[in-house]
Amino acid sequence: MGHILDIKIIPTSEEIVMEENDFIVSRTDVKGRISYGNEIFIRFSGFEEEDLIGQPHNIIRHPDMPRAVYRFMWQRLQAKQEFFGIVKNLCKSGAYYWTFASVKPSYQEGELNGYYSIRRKPSAEIVRTMTALYKQMIEEEARHSSSKASMDASFKLLTDLLAKQDISYDEFVYTHA
């Protein structure tokens, strides 16, 4: 297992755009530490494979991603459901890339043994929509001192959008992804 990397990545405005045939695959243990990443995951992350293995998957979490999205993801995973979402990831260089992510629990002999994620290129339309929404969600999270209150208020922006469109989260993501 790799050592914990002690680096501070400074985000830049450089975007790396996935190609239509790019599929990023990664696997983690039950604590969210990377146990596998395909060549495309390694290339997009900008890290060496040996530096990624054993690291928390959130090493590639971009600060533009609302914490409420990850709380929702973990709620879905703990309920043994697959999570689909539009995720902005951070590269070691500070650049970023958008993905349409599928994350699901992985079991061996009936026991949870980690999580498996496949990511592909999202549509430009959903990236525009989520960029604006995530900015509002981040701003809402910053307005609250309590972590729970900030994520509740942030997530309400998403649920209000869905209610306004009379659509479920999964339908929304799939329709626009």
Secondary structure blueprint with pairings:
Blueprint: E1 24-28, E2 34-37, H1 39-45, H2 49-52, H3 67-78, E3 83-90, E4 96-108, E5 111-120, H4 124-142, H5 147-165, H6 169-176
Helix pairs in contact: 3-5, 4-5
Element pattern in H and E = EEHHHEEEHHH
Query: How many β-strand stretches?
Result: 5
Profile the largest sheet: 5 strands, antiparallel
Instruction: Provide the CATH superfamily.
Output: PAS domain
- CATH fold name: Beta-Lactamase
Averaged pLDDT, please? 94
Radius of gyration: 16 Å
Question: Main attributes?
Answer:
single chain; 177 residues; alpha+beta; Beta-Lactamase; 6 helices; 23% strand
Write a brief caption for the model.
By secondary structure, the chain is α+β, with helices and mostly antiparallel strands.
Model description:
Strands 2-1-5-4-3 form a 5-stranded antiparallel β-sheet. Helix 3 crosses helix 5 and helix 4 packs antiparallel against helix 5 (147-165). It contains 6 helices and 5 strands; from the N terminus they run E-E-H-H-H-E-E-E-H-H-H. The mean pLDDT is 94. With 177 residues, the chain is α+β, with helices and mostly antiparallel strands. It has a single domain (24-176), classed as Beta-Lactamase. The protein has helices at residues 39-45, 49-52, 67-78, 124-142, 147-165, 169-176, and strands at residues 24-28, 34-37, 83-90, 96-108, 111-120.
